[in-house]
Each structure stands twice: as structure tokens, then as C-alpha cells.
Known about the structure:
The protein has 2 domains: about 1-65, Alpha-Beta Plaits (2-Layer Sandwich), CATH 3.30.70.20; about 85-245, Glutaredoxin, CATH 3.40.30.10. It has about 260 residues and is α+β, with helices and mostly antiparallel strands. The chain contains 7 helices and 10 strands. The radius of gyration is 19 Å and the shape is globular. Helix content is about 30%, strand content about 15%. Helix 3 (about 105-130) crosses helix 6 (about 200-215). It has helices spanning about 20-25, 50-55, 105-130, 145-150, 175-180, 200-215, 230-240, and strands at about 5-10, 60-65, 90-100, 130-140, 155-160, 160-165, 170, 185, 190, 195. Strand 3 (about 90-100), helix 3 and strand 4 (about 130-140) form a beta-alpha-beta unit. The strands form 4 sheets. The chain has a 4-stranded mixed β-sheet with strand order 4-3-5-6, covered by helices on one side. Strands 1-2 form a two-stranded antiparallel sheet. It has a two-stranded antiparallel sheet with strand order 7-8. Bound molecules: iron/sulfur cluster (2 copies). One iron/sulfur cluster (SF4) binds near residues 37, 57, 58 and 61.
Amino acid sequence: MAKKWYPVIDYMECIECGICSKMCPHEVYDMDKTPTPVVKNPENCVDHCHGCGNKCPKGAITYVGDDTGWVPKNKKDDTVSCAACNSNSLKKILIEYMYLDLNVCDRCIGTEEILVKAMEEIKEELYNAGFEMIYRKVLIDTEEKAIKHHFNSSPSIRVNGYDLCETVQENHCGCCSDIACDSVQCRTYEFEGQMYEIPPVRMLAEFILKQAYSGNTINTRKIDYMLPENLKIFYTGKKKINNAACGCTRGCNCE
Length: 255
Ligand code: SF4
Ligand code: SF4
């Protein structure tokens, strides 16, 4: 299974103070590169540690695999722009990652890793072209949230509100089936005639660039939505397990 927890640096915010690399006792960061924070040994990072993120004066650190609800202490609110001073003239590109689970599901975990990689690859090009990427992770762990976000399939990647996939294609997901104790499907991706369970970096990078250069504003179009049967199965199964009176972590099926 892929490593589930390690820091990701927002280099647009980072001021290269070196606090993160100096404070981490686990050699996650490359000390030869300090004060520039370069994650050299992600496998050394301790699950659920927010040590460096809590110390970062710019709130520039987030974590792959983090669905704890933790937010960087010093992060400025990217969703609010100051019309009066207009100090930041970079055009914002909102990248949203919507998922069912980042603890167990290999596909949610793997897809996020690829998305972060794709953003890393194109951030310089976009910055030079006057764009800034804003990354937002959205855990869709209830029916209510799925309805609120018009969530069709897990995981979903949206750029400025436009979904990477125009249609939903899915196949059986063992991890999410385990979580729900029922048969659950997750998204598959079609790119250049091939099907993938985890999308290739190039597919994501090209989609982000296409949306950035399209001139489209944020998509707020409301479309009719019905919670897909597959997601209903997931949420119902998960709820059953969480409410299991028998104490069995598989919950539902023990007599
Ligand atoms: S989260 Fe903790 S273990 Fe991981 S890099 Fe930061 S300080 Fe080190
Ligand atoms: S602590 Fe924050 S601002 Fe300082 S080097 Fe690390 S990521 Fe950059």
C-alpha cells in the first residue's frame, strides 16, 4: 500500500524559513536543501503528526492522507480576496479533491498522490502565466455531504467546478466494499483509449492546464442531482457498521 501520510509544501506560500526541516526529528526533509523544504523521505513521516504544519508561520504545509479536519494554523483564507487593495493579482484556480476515504481506500489515497504530483509539475508554468492553484480536499463521508456537493462517484476531481470526468465509469473497489461490508464501486478513468483505476499524472496536469487557459469562470451551474445507488450502498453499509450493537467491527453480518 502507498504511504498514506506525509507533508506537502505550498511553495507559493512558503518563505523558506527552514523551521519545518529543522524541527522534524525523523529526517523527512532533505537537510542539504534547508531552508528550502524538500520532502526527501516521506516514508519516515509519522502518521497523524502535524508537528511541522503547526509550526509553519505561513500555513504552507498540508498532509497527504489527512482527513482529520486539521487546518494549518497560520493559513490565510484563500477564498476571500481583498477587493480594496487587490494585493494578489494572480488568478485563482480552484482544485477540489472529493473522496470517500483516505485511511483505507488505495484508490482515494493513490489518486490524491497523483493529483499532488500533477500540481507540482505544472505549478511553475501556471505561476509564470499568472495563475495560483488553490487546493481543497473535501471528505464526502455522509449522504448529506454527497447531496450538498452533487457527488457522483469517488474520487472526484474538479477544477473551477468542472469535473475531470464528464461521465461516471466505475468498477468494484475492494477497499470501499470492506468499509461498507457490501459491494461498492469506485471511479475509473479513461485516458487515450486506456482505462485506469488511478489516473495518470499527465491526464490530471492536462486537465488543470486546459481549465486554467480556457478563460472559464468558476462553474456554479446547478444541475439536477440524485444520490447514485452505489453511494447509497456505501453510506448505508458504513452506518450499519458504525451502529453495530454486537461490537463486531464487521458489524452487520454476525448472528
Ligand atoms: S509531520 Fe511530523 S514526522 Fe512528518 S515531517 Fe512533519 S514533523 Fe516530521
Ligand atoms: S515552516 Fe513553512 S514557511 Fe518555513 S520553510 Fe517550512 S513550509 Fe516554508
